[in-house]
Model the fold of this input.
Amino acid sequence: MRLLGHPVHVMLVHFPVALWPAHAGLQLFASRLPAGAAVTVGFWLLAAGTALGWLAAIFGLTDLADLWAENDPSRLTAGIVHALVNGTALLGFTAILVLEYRVYPTIQHGAAFLAAEAVLLAAMFAGNYFGGAVIWRQPSRAP
Done:
């Protein structure tokens, strides 16, 4: 799906890619930052990244349906892998958001939590590799 000629999914995916690592960084350094600031800002970064991630996923599913219609097996396979891996990361960050919401504003995370968040971030970046493969394998289009 396009908005003014630009792919909506591609425009939206940049938000979780930026906001989720920022959340992780704030949680990692929360003990060295002003009391409460990192927790509050981090929570809202997580909420915004997750909300925009769900919006990106909806538009991504429409793009995946378009790939299905194009009959390009390599791009479709990359798109499905991208959707599954990043969908898993989105579910993981949604779970983190729910857990943080329950205890907001007294959020505290230990090493195990930060490690789990690092795994989700690694999954997101791996999934983005496959998303990029869909984009870069496009046949060239003349203007």
Summary: The radius of gyration is 17 Å. The chain has one domain: 2-136.
